DNA sequence: GTTCTTGTTGCTCATCTGTCTCCCACGTCC
DNA sequence: GGACGTGGGAGACAGATGAGCAACAAGAAC
């Protein structure tokens, strides 16, 4: 257990050497030539005294804090933020960095979000991660540019900043592909009504995947509603009321899929025997707990957090130039998570 | 937008005064005698230049960082951590503090958790919040004691540290009370099997509340299973198979309630017409999205985070002595959240 | 009416926080 | 008299803090 009132100076006195020497030894300074005996003595005394470096003083001197700022939207609103934080925290810890986290709101004014960044800047974080709650275009506070920064799960409007986002199209293709692979030929899509990248990209992938499989992608049924359980329910009721009722349903997210489950139950349709369902998001609380378990596409929140942190640290340490990556966002894949909601269609 | 290369010195030069004067003005030092004109000039020049204080240097000198460490378990595993973080972040921000967050695992070794605390200590946080994932007894790293600390959602084993926990009994009483108020006389409890405070306290409150209402609390049916959806399902099947089938069900948590919903559906029991259900936790993803919406008891995670932060800051600023509060944990109430899963029993 | 005292105002100097880092100073041995 | 081996001194990082110093005014003593 370390006593935080012990400084390098105390170690120096106790070891009978100069402060400089202690610093050299403890930091293993390359050019410092100090005898093994002295090194040993300094180290053992430092340990005895429970010396721990004062990172503040270090940071002041070296202009490096070893801290990364993370401004995250909706920390408590979705489980997504938690995964981003976790990915970032583990990546940061692995390289000796720590995280300063500030919660913000996507709907907060630009000034208030700028103030959040300002707080981080005053504390001299080495870099900033800016994470949004869902994949969209954000307007970034201007002061973000003053240190290396990476955007997580969004792209900046008109912005030239390194960003990492999920592969919406690939995920949607995997979802639809799983339905096709199970033998379904009548596949419907329950889509979101928001104007976000996911809405159009998943729709596009849905149609394209069907078409590439020799089906009529353009004619495949699509119903849109707000992306909540109730919306999913309503859209599913409509889509399942068609005379060419789909046997496979791709849902914009797990919540909508949950609504689809209810619609199916009300119609006496058993999942997956009568209807196969795929979701999106892999919100474990929902997907794993529905009955049967929902096969869905996972969003790589953990991975995005980790990727962003890795590259941010690389940039901070001069191993990378973020500007090179800024023009195009990095796309991380969305893997299919298989559970029990897909089966072959009835003959 | 502030340029972080501007220091107090630059302001001093531009204003034609000494560094000391700038510091005095900007910090509104009480005993400093400086003319209003000079004050005005300093302030306007500071603003013009976009001066922002270097909190590192400040902290080094004043021995106050304005940072609070938060070590939290399972940041991504439950939504609970997010609420604690949010409560802490908002309380901290309101008083000019920021949060350094470190994720840890409840199952991690004591040494590894001690290292987490050590990282915070090296950065000279003013205080530490230690949050667990669920209400239980934890063994705390010893170095936690070196700065003011507050434990969130747990009590320390044998520990003398200020803690804040949820009112398990009160919450359970509210849940059972709601069932009784609706007119139910045959009420069952689906309990957890883990040996945590909630298990025994909720059971106790369940029986006591029934007894106080003139029913036979000791004879009321209780079935225990692992506190997941499947466990809830199994326990509900058992409890609903009794000949004196309960018309009201209190479930240990929302996940178990979700299982009970399925059991009821399979038995052709409609909620709430044939069976009223109350959960615990208010996990919105589940409770609000089940059909009908689940009436449940909310755990005060946000409030605990905020309470802990408030009191921690008070202690840091010398306004409170945490030792006074250490002997007994503070208990925060668990309010009932009414949705649509309770109705009067059929005649 | 001049000088001295005392008080007030307005601001600055020196020092401190804990650590790093460039540069220099010894001695010793060829 | 260089080269080598060992180690130390003195800023610097950015700001905080309390003692201290001019300058001036009012009042007092002569």
CATH homology-level superfamily of the largest domain in chain A: Response regulator
Q: Based on the structure, what is the oligomeric state of the protein chains?
A: homodimer
Count of spatially separate domains of chain A: 3
Question: Radius of gyration of chain A, rounded?
Answer: 26 Å
- Tell me, rounded to a whole number, the average pLDDT of chain A: 95
Count of DSSP H/I helices of chain A: 13
Sum up the overall morphology of chain A in one term.
elongated
Number of extended strands of chain A:
12
Describe the structure.
The structure is a homodimer of 347-residue chains. The first copy, chain A, is an alpha/beta fold and 347 residues long. Chain A has helices at residues 8-15, 19-27, 36-49, 55-62, 80-94, 110-122, 168-181, 197-212, 229-240, 254-266, 284-287, 301-316, 322-325, and strands at residues 67-73, 98-104, 127-138, 149-156, 163-166, 187-192, 222-225, 248-251, 276-278, 296-297, 330-332, 336-337. Chain A is 42% helix and 18% strand. In chain A, the strands form 3 sheets. In chain A, strands 2-1-3-4-5-11 form a 6-stranded parallel β-sheet, with helices on both faces. The first copy, chain A, has a 4-stranded parallel β-sheet with strand order 7-6-8-9, with helices on both faces. In chain A, strand 8 (248-251), helix 10 (254-266) and strand 9 (276-278) form a beta-alpha-beta unit. The model of chain A has no long low-confidence stretch (mean pLDDT 95). At the A-B interface, helix 4, helix 5, strand 2, helix 6 and helix 10 of A face helix 4, helix 5, strand 2, helix 6 and helix 10 of B. Chain B binds a DNA duplex (30 and 30 nucleotides) through residues 7-9, 17-24, 27, 29, 31-35, 38, 53-54, 56-63.
């Amino acid at each position: 257990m370390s006593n935080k009132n012990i400084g390098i100076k105390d170690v120096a006195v106790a070891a009978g050497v100069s402060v400089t020497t202690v610093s050299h030894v403890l930091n293993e300074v390359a050019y410092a030539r100090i005898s093994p005996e002295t090194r040993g003595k300094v180290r053992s005394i430092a340990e005895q005294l429970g010396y721990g470096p004062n990172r503040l003083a270090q940071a002041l001197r070296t202009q490096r804090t070893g801290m990364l700022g993370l401004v995250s939207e909706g920390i408590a609103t979705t489980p997504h933020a938690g995964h981003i934080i976790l990915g970032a925290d583990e990546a940061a810890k692995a390289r000796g960095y720590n995280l300063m986290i500030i919660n913000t709101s996507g709907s907060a004014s630009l000034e208030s979000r700028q103030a959040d960044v300002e707080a981080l800047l005053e504390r001299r974080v080495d870099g900033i991660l800016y994470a949004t709650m869902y994949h969209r275009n954000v307007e970034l506070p201007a002061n973000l540019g003053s240190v290396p920064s990476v955007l997580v799960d969004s792209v900046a409007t008109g912005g030239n900043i390194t960003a990492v986002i999920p592969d919406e199209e690939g995920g949607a293709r995997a979802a639809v592909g799983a339905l096709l692979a199970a033998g379904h030929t009548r596949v419907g899509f329950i889509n979101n009504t928001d104007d976000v990248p996911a809405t159009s990209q998943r729709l596009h992938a849905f149609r394209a995947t069907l078409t590439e499989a020799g089906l009529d992608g353009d004619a495949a049924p699509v119903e849109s509603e707000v992306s909540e359980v109730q919306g999913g329910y309503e859209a599913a009721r409509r889509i399942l009321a068609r005379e060419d009722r789909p046997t496979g349903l791709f849902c914009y997210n797990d919540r909508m899929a949950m609504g689809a489950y209810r619609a199916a139950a009300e119609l006496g349709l058993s999942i997956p025997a009568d209807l196969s369902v795929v979701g999106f998001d892999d919100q474990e609380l929902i997907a794993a707990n529905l009955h049967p378990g929902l096969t869905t596409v996972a969003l790589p929140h953990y991975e995005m957090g980790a990727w962003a942190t890795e590259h941010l640290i690389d940039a901070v340490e001069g191993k990378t130039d973020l500007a090179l990556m800024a023009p195009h966002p990095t796309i991380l894949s969305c893997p299919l998570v298989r559970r029990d909601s897909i089966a072959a269609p009835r003959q």
